[in-house]
Amino acid sequence: MLRRLAISCLVALLALPASARTRPHYGSTLRVEIEGDAWQRSGEFTRRLVLDGLTRMDADGAAHPSLAIEWKSENEDHRWEFRLRPGVHFHDGSPLTSTAVVNALNLACTTNCPWSAIHAVGVSVVFISDSPMPSLPALLAGDEYLIAADAGGNIGTGAFQVTGFNNSLLTLTANESCWQGRPFVDVVEIHVHRSIRDQWLDLSVGRADLVEVPAEQLRQAREQHLTVLQSPSSTLLALSVASSGVLGNPDLRWSIALAVDRAALSNVIFQKQGEVTASLLPAALTGYSFLYSTDRDLNKSHEKHGGLTLPPLAMSTEGGSAMQLAAQRIALNLYDAGFNVQVVAAEGTRPAELALRRIQIESNQPRAALEMMLRNAGVAAPVLENTPAELYRIEREFLETHALIPLLYLPRAYAMGGRVRDLRLSVDGTPLVAGASLEDAP
Fold this sequence. Notes:
- By secondary structure, this protein is of the alpha+beta class.
- The radius of gyration is 24 Å and the shape is globular.
- The two termini are 39 Å apart.
- Helix 7 packs antiparallel against helix 10.
- It is built from 13 helices and 19 strands.
- It folds into 3 domains: 52-145, Dipeptide-binding Protein, Domain 1 (Dipeptide-binding Protein, domain 1, Alpha-Beta Complex); 168-231 and 415-438, 3-Layer(aba) Sandwich (D-Maltodextrin-Binding Protein, domain 2), CATH 3.40.190.10; 232-411, Dipeptide-binding Protein, Domain 3 (Dipeptide-binding Protein, domain 3, Roll), CATH 3.10.105.10.
- The strands form 5 sheets. Strands 11, 12, 13, 14, 15, 16 and 17 form a 7-stranded mixed beta sheet that branches.
């Protein structure tokens, strides 16, 4: 008995340091490096550290309470009422009121809004629409509907508040009175416009704690034994095509869709990461994406082109060397089909007829995800039915316009340093920094 007791005590003593290492600590500074702009509308996670929405999307894909604690619909989803969480304040000390929410949403959404009108009614926000809004709670969890107290979108109710931005360094400080509870980390430093090479170098020498891993470099990251967090396929790579002007002819847009070699993009540029697709939503959400052909058909592309003499076209693309390479390869594909395409900067003065884009999927509920995609493409009609057959019909009708040509679904990934604990990714691949802690915090 004495021997067993001694062994038990020894095991307990040895276990203490391990449990201490895994217990979250408050304090210290999390150093993040990114390639793009920390405050862009979507694609970066910084805004979600500072701003909250009325709802939030959990890993289960359902809308959960955030700044709104409950909601109800009336009149067959034509009217929704969201009751606000009491006692919440913005970072500048002003209270969260229904009027403040209405003002923020009116600034955030000026066209193609899911609602026709929005009103402040006591402690509630009421949305009204001429059409049903069955997916409104899920839609309001999206990046574009985050609530800010100022026109610049810098003052929110989130776990961190902006305290400085200079020399490409954005500094966020923990919100001590956050309605969700204080985050573990004291400060988040975000270094912007850092190349992937520099990010990985800083991670290797301990100057960074969280860096980006582009899909095309996932294999390389693992070969270098980086600790990688990877989401499912949550980013759609798509080619946006103007439906007016030179490409107003639908057969020309169809010709472009037939000419793109998706397999080459996947195998060569993105190193076989993600999945080749010709559908808006990934196969895991719908089960019907296989019905859309992803094969290149150059003969049919020539047929649809019709031998027309066209002026040169411009194709813009957003950041990253892989996106530039992908745009150039697509331009070569289109040259084979009779199009003369020049790749230009996204911020160029000339309007581009083609644009290579990344679009985040922010929900794993098929109906809500499809409506988000359509609204992103400029289609404001709500998705009313939730059956696979109806979702397929709506998606097919849109894709037959060839105004948006899906190409690949790619994962999002990040690499983290050894002192980071409890960091997870959301359903759309966003790092949930507010729940993370640092091992060396006091």
